[in-house]
Amino acid sequence: MKELRADARRNREQILRAAQLAFLEQGPEVPLDQIADRAGVGNATLYRHFPTRLALIECVVTDHMTRVAEAATAALTEAPTARAALTRFAEQVVEQRLVAMLPILGGYVETGPEFRSTRAKVVAALDKLVTAAREQGALRPDVGAADLVMFLAVLTRPLPTISRELNDDVRARMLATLLDGLSPQHATTLPATPITVDRITTNLTTARDS
């Protein structure tokens, strides 16, 4: 992608933020003109950056995947312990709802080269975080990177019938409970079938094509 002017870059970022919120609240079929209004731009500006709905969806997903990888890497680099890194990562992901897009939009994304490259970066960053947490005794051995992503994806989905304030309170309590449940102390064995990144991707693709 060629370098954008400052105003064009700002418009693009506003569109992505608006699309994220709209997709969370109304799903992938939300009218694009609503996203443009929410971003404070005209329809022509939105279509200039994202000529199709699929292009916008794919950009939102890859943007979030990139931010997840960056969050995992930064947490592991800057936190004093792997437990602190895991907590910091989970809190940031939940606060910014970075993985909430996966169950909402994953079935719409074409698994092309850019998606596969971005996914590989996410997997590598999460594997490092998970491995460090296991080695320091901060994470139960039967929980992998894909489990962590799916737990957080479910947790970050908004509950549409309650207020934002109550949503935030419920989410905070669920996150604290989840982090305790990730600890290896007094852990109950999980069901035998593991969750993997490939299994998630295949499932989403199958659901899209059926």
Report on the structure:
The protein has 210 residues and is mainly alpha-helical. It folds into two domains: 1-51, Arc Repressor Mutant, subunit A; 53-209, Orthogonal Bundle (Tetracycline Repressor, domain 2), CATH 1.10.357. The chain contains ten helices and no strands. The protein has helices at residues 6-26, 32-39, 43-49, 53-78, 82-96, 101-105, 113-135, 145-156, 164-181, 197-209. Helix 1 crosses helix 2, helix 1 crosses helix 4 and helix 5 crosses helix 7.
Strand content: under 5%
Total number of domains? 2
Structural class: mainly alpha
Mean pLDDT: 88
Please give the radius of gyration in angstroms: 18 Å
Q: N-to-C terminal Cα separation, in Å?
A: 33 Å
- Unreliable stretches, pLDDT < 50, 5 or more residues? none
What form results from the Cα inertia axes? globular
Main beta-sheet annotation? none
How many helical stretches? 10
How many strands in all?
0
The first-level CATH class name of the largest domain: Mainly Alpha
Share of residues in helices: over 70%
Order of helices and strands: HHHHHHHHHH
Instruction: Based on the coordinates given, report the CATH architecture of the largest domain.
Output: Orthogonal Bundle
- What is the fold-level CATH name, i.e. the topology of the largest domain? Tetracycline Repressor, domain 2
> CATH H-level name of the largest domain... which superfamily?
Tetracycline Repressor, domain 2
